[in-house]
Each structure stands twice: as C-alpha cells, then as structure tokens.
Amino acid sequence: RMVRAAGAAKPPALTKRDWQVLLLLGLMIPVLAVSAIGNQQMFNAYLVWADRSYEFMLFGHRMPTSFLVSFDAFTGFVTLAGAVAFWRWYARHWREPDEMTKLIIGCLISSSAFLLVMIVASRHEATGVKPALWVALAVNTLNNLGFANVFPVSLALYSRAAPRAISGTVVGIYYLFLALANYLVGVVGGWLEIMPAGRFWGLHVAAILGAAAVFVAIKLVFGKLLLPEVVESPAI
User: Fold this and answer.
1) What is the pTM assigned to this prediction?
2) Which helix (DSSP H) or strand (DSSP E) does residue 52 occupy?
3) Mean pLDDT score across all residues of the chain
C-alpha cells in the first residue's frame, strides 16, 4: 500500500505583498474593460454606423460592410506581430518600458482611432458628406495597434505579477475584463440611436482616455508593487 510521503510540498502561504498585488490586479479589471470598450464596439455599433456612413468605394469597386470585419482580422494579426517585433527591436537599443507604460501607450493609440471617427461622424452630420473608406481602414489599423499594446501586455502583466501559487486562477479572473467590456458595449451601443454620432464616439474617446489616466495614477502610486520582485542571492 502506497503511503503518502511525509512533508509533501504545500502551496506557499500568500504574503502581505501578494494580497496587495491581488487587490490591485482585481481593481484594474474594470479599468481594462473601459479601455477595451472601443475595440469591442468595433463589432457592434461601429458596424451599424459604418454601414450607413462610409462611402464603400475602394479602387473603383463597392465593398460590402463585411469587408471591415475581414480587414480588422487582417490588421489585428499584423499589428500584434508588429507590436511584438517593435518592442523587441526597441529593447535592443533602449530600455524597454514596463507593462503599465505600454498599457498607457495602447490606450492613447486606441483613443486616436475613435477621435478620428468622432471627427468624420461630426462632419458627416453637418455636411452630409460620407467619409471615404480609407478613413475606416485607418480607424481599424489604429484601434488594432492600440489594442495590441493592451490585451497581450495586460495578460503578460497578470501572468507575471500574480502570486505563483494561484497564477492560473488570477489569469482566469483576468479574462473577466472582456466579459465586462462586452456588457458595457451592449449598454452603450444602444445610445447610438438617441444621440448625435459625433457625441457618441466622443464618449468612447473620453472613456479610453479616462482609463489611460487611471493607469497613469496606478503607475505613479503603485508602480513599484507591480514590478518584478528582486530576489537577493545568498552571500557565498
């Protein structure tokens, strides 16, 4: 009969610092959700607005609205690979910024996409002139480039910063931000029919910039808590 080995390894107890990190990561979930509201809206109200607002002519051919979904998938892959390659190149020449800084950069880039939508939507309402499809391609590219510095970067942050004993659980909780973002998109998306489009997209710009501001505050106040722990080597 097999006897359980004495002194079997037990998961290490969480330290005070571990609990502080867990609390901070938990509080960041709704902020991440707000930062992603624009990206998730690209497959909801944005397509509704785009269908009736853009001039879908490209190189002399009329494109279907679904073209934007295909283009988004393509640019999503390219910008993600491009962001990884860029930061690797950057790290070979300069000091690579930490995850919080990348999150802030990603939010700023994403907000620029919806600032562009806000501008052309306001112009369309004022003049009736439909924005060219090239604008839509720029919006998709900017949004995906921004999200490429939010989603994988925040996932890496949660994976690294979470206490080793419960890292899998923390990563699972991390994905709640996408569920919350989709819920917010469903609520906010209905406002497209009851407010001017320029103001509607302006709300998205404000939300993403607001999330960026919170990330800045977290970095300034709690930045050291999210940095990798320095383990001192024992003296020989």
Assistant:
1) 0.90
2) helix 45-53
3) 91
